[in-house]
Amino acid sequence: MNRTDMKDAMAQDVDVATRPQLATSGEILRVRDLSVQIADKTVLDDVTLDIGASERVGLIGASGSGKSMLVKAITGLLPRAARVGGDITMGGTRLQAGDDAAFAALRGRYVGLVFQNPGAALNPVLSVEQQVCLPLRLHYDLDAGERRDRVMTMLERVGLPASLAGSYPHELSGGQQQRVGIATALITSPRLIIADEPTTALDAIVQRSIIDLLVSLVESAGASMLFITHDFAVLSRATTRCMVIDRGRIIETGDTAALLHDPRQPQTRLLVNAAKTLTLNVNPEHHHA
Amino acid sequence: MTAVSDDGKRFKRSGRDRHATGNVPLRMRFGVIMRSMWQQSGGRFALIVMACWIAVSLLSLFWTPYPLLQTDGGHAWASPSAAHPLGTDGVGADVLSWLMAGSRTNLVIALLTMLVSAMIGLACTAVMVSGRRALASAGVVVVDALIAIPTVLLALLFAVPFGASIAVIVAACGMTYGLNMARIVKPSASLAARSAYVQAARAMGVSAWRVFFTHIVPSTFPVLAVQLSMSAGTSILAEAGLTYLGVGVPSGVPSWGHTLTTSVRLISVYPLTVLWPGLTVTLVVTALYLLGDAIRDCADPLANVELRKLAATVSRQTHNTGVDA
Amino acid sequence: MRYLIWRLIWFAVALLGLSLLVFAALRILPGDVASVMAGTNATPARVAAIRSRMGLDRSYPQQYADWLGGLLHGNMGVSAISGRTVASQIGSHAAITLPLIVLSLLVALSIGIPMGCQAALAGSPRVRSVLHTIAIVGGAVPALWGGLLLIMLFGRGVGLIGILPSQGFPDAGWHAPRAALISLILPAITTGLVAGAGIMRYTRACLISMEDSDTVAMAMACGMTRRQAMLRVGLRLSAAQLVSVAGLTFAQMITGVMVVESLFNLPGLGAMLINDVGNRDLIAVQSELFLLAAFFLLLGLLVDLMHHALDPRLGERTQHVGGEEHA
């Protein structure tokens, strides 16, 4: 057992100690007939989806199609003015829209979020260590030394040197900032990771390394993932299933490889073509396909 | 003290204003903004109060229920009645007549304060966004330093040579509000100053002044308008305070502060008289604050759909004529 | 550090500029101060005596240099009317005004910040809009009128619930601390309420601007409820701005404080300044105005430094630690 594995095992302690009921459920996220209206505009329309244990699902859609709204609705981050209908069940809890406390109990513990633009999302007055530690502080009653150990392990796993623990976000590069974001999302070993285009704010070269990092960490933790991205290569490599959202509705869903090679809906075809041109290091065969 | 009402978000927004509505003539934008303000309850209230204020000011030039100097010694501190709708003050003068006449003085003070503070504010902004780095940063620090000086100290200073006068109020308010305005307008101004079209205009040899007034000032317009209406409101409050302290409007000149001041004496015996000038000031200042809020909501193309539609129509039209020609 | 030095240098320059402004404004006086002070039927000899005693017979640069030199040595001159030194005059009046301002600010902050948070975060939209209206209307009330209404409500002897003194300061001053403090309560509430409405507006605006920020969303994603995230993260991120607002409020509150002092018959700095300006007591007005303005410049400096301390992004120059990201 090498050092990283040992630390992994330590991180899993948290789950075993505090979430016995979650282990029994094979279903990680269950959404039924989810509808969201904001200012009389329907942004989500009867969305139904399931994510099972260790399943990695991709979500693609044009901008304004409701991708981010879906993420916000699932995690209870919608603006106050939103009207929500339908059912969300996460970690065995049926969540009522507007029950902020119930959502908050799951956020950062059962579901971790990776934001699109870490420069705007990371709290500018918290140091890297304080930031990564925040979900632990909010959900678990650990002593300071133990918390610090976990944070330092996590920083190492996301490839940040320990010397950066005391730095503030504005002192980091964009890639380093997103590594902090990933560490914060994963510090409590959540069962579900939702990543909302986690690399669009980054340089092209950094993008690939961040995605690889995220996918490998989720994989090794055995967590499920909902991944919003336009990166064709990532979709086909990291996700098993893929959903297409258009104007607030899920219009197509299926096996990632099949969906990307043979899109049925015209909107999907448009998106897939756009994704192909945007994707870095695409295999030449994909262009001919 | 650094930026008070500006966060990064507004900073970015005002930069985008240009792209959204820059091609729309100000006159057309004004119509749309007014219409959307009328549709808000706060904006409508503000517009109605403003209209009444201006109308009463004009009316008072020709007619007031009683001549200002006519006093009725036998009916001092009279309660409201058919003859004196708002009662009379300590010398038996009609309170309504004085309030009506006062509204024009306050209107003049508010307008002059807006003018002076806009001039000072824009001058400071011009220095702060100027191309010369040393000048610009000196400007920022001087504005940061001077902004802390209270209006009343300036008014007292100016009152020594000039005595109590409207000019003292306008100078003191104009200076303090102008500095504040400069600091709030600065982010959007410096964003415009760094933008590509300003760089292009400079490269083409357009003079710095022309660039400032044709490109930079219009881009700060939404923020500027909000600040101006706030300044107008605060100038009314300042007038009341300074007049009471004896360094504002000279005695004998009607103003709301003057009416408030004369009715303060014997407040315990005749509390009704003091109600009216206070209510008037509160009402008008509230309206001016709401006006500022309404302008902010309606002049922002990101928040106002109508404005975006207008911009889209105009750009389509210009595009079409371009093709035809 | 660089900002601090830069700011201190400009603080000194601003002080110098301020002294010039005060000096010049008081010299463009139409007419002769000495003859105004001597009275209408004074002999030319008496006028000349006053003039030479006040140093008004010297050239302007010399007068300016004398005054500045005196200020640097802590000698602010002697009031031509009362004969007391300006320093002692300011000291005795500030003993009323400064506590009054501090009390007012305490009232303003303790009302403005919680109510502003509530105006932004209350669950019911109706409560939010009522609180917003209160903030706007409250800020539009002239201090003079607000004070009158409070006297009519609570003033001892005149008010409906006459429980608080509304006139004067105890003769014993701060030697009778209880009575002195009680006499400041109603005036402090007056200015505090009006200024508090302004702080409430700003607190609300700051929090609302944070509402859809990614930082608050991230705090919620870590496990905070919306309310927790807004109060612990949103409010903290607005703190730098709120300190600036509180500083400006503090500076502008002095107008209301002077009005209220006069209304409640408190012999504070307002009464002293109005009196000296009315008497055209040149030497006293010059030093008093300069000193007060300098006090507010210093306040501005402190607020600026606090603003910088509260926001690490403004602290030092942005630097990337640990080199560039490796692919």
UniProtKB/TrEMBL annotation, chain A:
Any one GO cellular component localisation term in the record: plasma membrane
Membrane topology qualifier: Peripheral membrane protein
EC number: 3.6.3.24
Signal peptide annotation: none
Keyword terms of this UniProt record: ATP-binding, Cell inner membrane, Cell membrane, Hydrolase, Membrane, Nucleotide-binding, Translocase, Transport
Principal location: membrane
Domain ABC transporter: 29-272
Enzyme class: hydrolase
InterPro entries per UniProt: AAA+_ATPase, ABC_Ni/Peptide_Import, ABC_transporter-like_ATP-bd, ABC_transporter-like_CS, P-loop_NTPase
Gene Ontology MF terms in the entry: ATP binding; ATP hydrolysis activity
Gene3D superfamilies: P-loop containing nucleotide triphosphate hydrolases (3.40.50.300)
Record localization: Cell membrane
Family per similarity comment: Belongs to the ABC transporter superfamily.
PANTHER family: ATPASE AAA-TYPE CORE DOMAIN-CONTAINING PROTEIN, OLIGOPEPTIDE TRANSPORT ATP-BINDING PROTEIN APPD
Protein name per Swiss-Prot or TrEMBL: Dipeptide/oligopeptide/nickel ABC transporter ATPase
Organism whose genome encodes this protein: Bifidobacterium boum
From TrEMBL, chain C:
Domain ABC transmembrane type-1: 94-307
Major localization class: membrane
Record carries keyword RNA-binding: no
Keyword Endoplasmic reticulum set for record: no
UniProt-listed GO biological process terms: transmembrane transport
Keyword tags: Cell membrane, Membrane, Transmembrane, Transmembrane helix, Transport
Subcellular location: Cell membrane
PROSITE patterns (UniProt xref): ABC_TM1
Family: Belongs to the binding-protein-dependent transport system permease family.
Name of the protein: Binding-protein-dependent transport system inner membrane protein
Provenance organism: Bifidobacterium boum
